[in-house]
Amino acid sequence: MPASPIRKLVPFAEQAIRDGKKVYYLNIGQPDLPPSDTTLSAIRNTPIDVIEYSHSAGNVSYRKKLADYYKKLEIDVEFDNILITTGASEAIMFAFNCCCNPGDEIIMPEPFYANYNGFATATDVNIVPITSSIENNFALPPISEFEKKITSKTKGIFICNPNNPTGYLYSRREIEMLGELVKKYNLYLFSDEVYRTLCYVDEPFFSVMQLKGCDQNTMLIDSASKRYNACGLRIGALITRNREIVDTAMKFAQARLSPPHFGQIAGEAALDSSEDYLNRIFDEFKSRRDFIVSALNRMDGVIAPAAKGTFYVMAQLPVDDTEKFCQWLLTDFNHKQQTLLLAPASGFYKTAGLGRHEVRIAYVLGINDLRNAMDCLELALKQYPGRKEIKRVKSISSVSGF
Amino acid sequence: MPASPIRKLVPFAEQAIRDGKKVYYLNIGQPDLPPSDTTLSAIRNTPIDVIEYSHSAGNVSYRKKLADYYKKLEIDVEFDNILITTGASEAIMFAFNCCCNPGDEIIMPEPFYANYNGFATATDVNIVPITSSIENNFALPPISEFEKKITSKTKGIFICNPNNPTGYLYSRREIEMLGELVKKYNLYLFSDEVYRTLCYVDEPFFSVMQLKGCDQNTMLIDSASKRYNACGLRIGALITRNREIVDTAMKFAQARLSPPHFGQIAGEAALDSSEDYLNRIFDEFKSRRDFIVSALNRMDGVIAPAAKGTFYVMAQLPVDDTEKFCQWLLTDFNHKQQTLLLAPASGFYKTAGLGRHEVRIAYVLGINDLRNAMDCLELALKQYPGRKEIKRVKSISSVSGF
Asked: Closest Cα of chain B to A96: distance in Å?
């Protein structure tokens, strides 16, 4: 596995800090917000006699509560359709290990979350990318493009919805088309929906688990990390109505004994977080998203689709190469002793050469910091010696509708 | 992966409980003892603002403290030789993923901890067993046997020291012979030393990390679970001076973001557990081991080597098949409304047909419970319809010396 373009920049950011600069970290999906009091209180006050292994699929009480949670979202599952995992990371590795033999293929729209590459390497699975484009807000590529990529080694299609890194929310129609496709070719449909509660449009969220007649195909990957500002818990879940997959995943789960004890306690308690807490988190991210999408689109030569969900936005910048530009921001740029760290989009594309004019921005800082960071970016784009106008794309519908 | 003989028995144990029997669970390595006050207090009182991802290799403060801990054990490593993992489970999978391609082979003395099979399946590695025997206390098989198994696909040798399930402690000479072997054939030497503090003999523990000239070959797998009665934390470590392995493992570590937050806080604090606490734990396990080995060897037809370490003992029982016997204990046996759950040893052997006359007993209950359980076992062996005398083995040196 090559080092990602994001990670290559971290030493430059550290040097900039040593040089006395304030660096706004907008490169990773680590929210800056606190967990709910309910979550914290469970950690502090749950009685502990023995710190033991839990059930390998996770505590039954937690799984039952999660099943109730999903039922309220019109995802009809029982507790024994749910395996608690060590983060969504482990859920994805279980899913790949259950569904694939070494060398099998999973089709994935790109750009995609760069860490999926690591899970694929660890499980000897090949990711086959299908390129989505900023020109139509990173919507699902045509189904015909998927069909062209299907081979005898193809085991499934993997989406992240709403999407990291693009912020795109797949429509019900897009999900239904994928459902028809996986049934037609007898494939699995994996959906990473860890950002589900962060959708900023009226359009209702539609999960792959709501597809009719796809029970044997669909697998939901979920996590407490983003929804409850609890990344460090390392608590995720693999959810499917396919009994064979559950049984096979249980064997991998048993091999690693159990998910973390305190993480499960906190994760279960997080489900009881108050409406007020959840609304405040949502409102905060929505304000940031509104702010940052507007700020980006006001900059000369910058295009940013209005992300419908997550806390990321992709932006096309008028530069020769965002890897160079992001490094230059850290090494050469200075605005009132401030600069920023962004994620060059090349790390999110598997197809070589793509993403060179795009960055992903994670809005994981408060509005004041974001404003300073966007001021820096606007100025930097004027000063950057490698500035290069990018051919204007036809239309970005969400921007016009924003 | 087939279901293990241990797991097949669990439903029978649950039925026995529903039928009103007391079942002594001696089947798994889940200690019944509490964590130290130091560990608990850290969970309760460490300030938390944001539950964030840690460094992918684990918190630097924890790794530095661990390096100091190892130095006291004459294992000279720096903090950047250490990756904190989600249990030893993850450390083993990182190690296999770093060192092996799909289809590569790892040689392992059997009987071995059954979960290694799961890690091998998850990483597409083949375990090649070399049989050790109860006749000589499960000592290391002759090096010539290892040499016979080495092929072009062999990437390493894996030991657990002291050994789960046998309780055997490899001698310094045995470790040195393995060191010479891996150097000769340019292999990795993986050593799972999670039970290191539970050694009941005067013979000093000798780690693979103390071998001279083997820095590029050796990898230590460790865990806080057993040492500090904290299985549920899911905190382990992969330790090696081989920089290439550290760098590759870091990529897998980065893909899964970080080990658990609260587990790391507790794991770091556990290193400060008082001598008094650690001594009490040690004394408790030593008393149990002394009791159970004596009790077993007093039973007619039973042979149990005096386990030198861990909290397991293997015993040869005068029965036709321990899988059948262990099930019969739960379904047909009853002594004052009590029975016991043991682990048939067949699950610890990869070679088909081995272990049929052996069980592993985990002494994870207090002496009074163990006494009741051994009373049950003695009586059961008299009543069991499939009783069968096993050809007496020549000599079991540790028993005579016990």
From this structure: 10
Q: Which residue has the tokens 């390493």?
A: B156
CA–CA min distance B221, chain A (Å): 14
User: Do the chains contact at B256 and A7, CB–CB below 8 Å?
Assistant: no
Q: Is the pTM of this model over 0.95?
A: no
pLDDT digits (tens, 9 = 90+) for B81-133: 999 999 999 999 999 999 999 999 999 999 999 999 999 999 999 999 999 99
Distance, CA of B125 to CA of B127 (rounded, Å):
7
Q: B10-34+276-401 architecture in CATH?
A: Alpha-Beta Complex (3.90)
Give mean pLDDT, residues B227-249. Answer: 95
Domain ranges, ordered by start, for chain B: 10-34+276-401, 46-270
CB contact under 8 A, B51 and A117: no
Helix (H, G, I), strand (E, B) or coil at A320: coil
* Interchain proximity B234–A260, CB inside 8 Å: yes
Indicate the residue of A44, A119, A124 with minimum beta-carbon distance to B255.
Answer: A119
Are B255 and A231 in contact (CB < 8 Å)?
Answer: no
Please count the other Cβ atoms lying within 10 Å of the Cβ belonging to residue A131: 15
Q: Is the pLDDT of residue A402 over 50?
A: no
* The CATH classification of domain B46-270, taken from the options 1.10.579.10, 3.90.650.10, 3.40.50.300, 3.40.640.10: 3.40.640.10
Q: In this complex, which of B32, B97, B115 lies closest to A255 when CB atoms are compared?
A: B115
Window 84-113 of B, Cβ < 8 Å to A: 86-87, 89-90, 93, 97, 102-103
Which residue, among A229, A248, A254, A249, has the nearest Cα to A237 in the 3D structure?
A: A249
Q: For chain B, how big is the Rg over CA atoms in Å?
A: 21
Q: What distance separates the 2 farthest-apart alpha carbons in chain A?
A: 64
Q: Under 8 Å CB-to-CB from A110, ≥6 apart: which residues?
A: A129, A130, A131, A132, A348, A349, A350, A351, A354
- Closest approach of chain B CAs to the CA of A84, in angstroms? 14
Enter the ipTM.
0.86
Separation in Å, CA B352 to CA B317, B348, B356: 19, 10, 10
- Give the torsion through C-alpha atoms of A310, A311, A314, A317, to 10 deg: 170
A182 close to B (CB below 8 A): no
CB atoms within 10 A of CB A385: 10
In degrees rounded to 5, what are phi and psi of residue A9? -85, -20
